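@channel anyone free to eyeball this complex?
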Amino acid sequence: MSETWIILGASSSMARAFIRDLAARGDKLLLAGRNLATLEELAQDCKLRGAELAEPIAFDARDPGCFGAIITRADQETGVLNAAVFVGSMPDQSAIDADPALIDGTITDSFTGPARFLQMLAPVLETRGNGMIIGVGSVAGDRGRIANYVYGAAKAGFATYLSGLRNRLGRSGVHVMTVKPGPVDTAMTWGLGKMPFMTTPEAVSADILKAMKKRRNVVYTAGIWRLVMLVIRTIPEPVFKKMSI
Amino acid sequence: MRWKNAEYAGWGRALQANGELTRPEARSALKKIVADTPAPAIGNRRSYGDACLNTDGKAIDMTRLDKFLGFDPETGVLTVEAGLSLGEIARIMAPRGWLPAVMPGTGFATVGGAIGHDVHGKNHHGAGSFGQHVQAFTLMTAAGETRVTADSDAALFKATMGGLGQTGVIASAEMRLARCKGDIVTVTERRVENFDEYLGLLDRSDATYSVGWIDATAKGASLGRGILEEAETGAGLVPPSKPSKTIPRDAPGFALSSPIVKLFNAAYFRRVPSHGRSMVKPINEFFFPLDRIHDWNRLYGKRGFHQFQCVVPLAEAGALREILTRISDSGRASPLAVIKRMGPGRAGYMSFPMEGYTLAVDFPNRDGAERLIKQLEDITAEAKGRIYLAKDSLSSRDRVRAMYPEFDKWAAEVAKADPDGALATDMVRRLGLRDEI
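replying in thread with the prediction:
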């Protein structure tokens, strides 16, 4: 029985690799995002790659008015219903320094928008009594750094939210998984210079699928980042505040 | 759209470029790039020389424009974005009974690259070149995508097939797939003892797919010995391919030195029993044997390698023997040497194929390799053959113009399509292909 997926931010580089893997399993995909023309092409791509169903649906993290329609549409499908959240935005820290108002959008895109959506979805999944939510955070959320602490703060908020949601939904048989990618070779990181332990969207997708089988709670990808962030988190604040990493 | 400064190379790695790259993920982004900063498009950089390089300039990495856009099971016409690889098409479509009508020796080649070089495959004698199965393509301009067919603009169509990307950025293509019974092949391998036997077998082969490995170190009575592979697609169940391996770093220079290559080739020849054998394999193992070893070009070390590939007319088999003799006498060949009989099929003015025999041999980039390759080119030219620009890194202006009789028609179309030379690449400059602009 094929499963149904709501994919928020379906045209992001990471989501594209993931939906192709889901398509190969023959799943049903609701591709949510802002650019419907691009999503229409992605839906066609997914269908040709084996998806039982793939349709574009309008989603904007900054417009909660569109959330309800997505959930209603998804709830029409029988079988297991899952959701994966790939939305987020990362303006340059320097741009935020110049225009602090950018903080609001960053927090909405990466944290409060998707959190509000999941908050509406939660009772639906509780009623259905199964399914999985995959939330993509970032290692940047594990500790605030000079280079991108607003983006990091948004992702940290989202990770804490997911932790609480996991605590709640686990009681109803719904699993919530937090994915924390390190740098991934995407449009977002293109041209930002050489980054350590960079991985690919395809590898991230493979890691997510593997972790889904094991019903892991928090997954780092590439796996080395669990260790790296453990070290970074244990650096005492008096030392850390003088570092630029 | 962000650009990043990068060092990059073709598959041979003997030639390198330093320039700015961008990588759009949607054709709408590609349109903006082409409007702002028209630049040559590059794919997975599986051409060997400098066809995919633009030193001190810009280039558009097309590999994330890799969507399936549509498929008509009635006609078998598949529409895809140009950055999609042929191996991915085969992987998805073969279980449903369809294959790209023409597949080159690596599945990493993109559709755009396959058009830009009008590539051929192991079935060229029957199926012709890649471009002959392309029904239409779109070129991206500042105004949007323009669809081109052989009927809408025959000259532009022919100038684009094998046209080294000089007529515009290819954004998508409609290609006619070929029916296959499934995603396995039945392969028959047989030892071939010498050059004459090889030509005889190639001439008589009626297999859909055929290709010959040749031991380019063998001399005298064994000159031109090798293993002929003939194959047909079929349905069935075989164990899936083992996971691919990666060559983690450049090999030292002696890894492919003459004695080691000789030993390897002798063992490889005896791999097949003297009475031959038949077996079934997953399609990718037959069509793309080296793709399972990622970055195998690193085996040639930091300096990289050159590949020489020529085709000579059927009547000039003597020239091919001469070429093989020179190669084996030089002791410079690597284990990678391939012979095949080609049919006349070609789709563009600058397409490589002609009816005859084609030979491809890799040479580690060491002192003297260049001189040897020049000699091989001389013999090819004398035999009225030609060299393959997808492989070339050493040829010259006059030589290429003499080998490609329709060069002038190509140049005229290119001058119309890209009057400012914004799409020129290192290869185009090295070979003076657009000197008139």
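from a first look: Chain A has one domain: 4-240.
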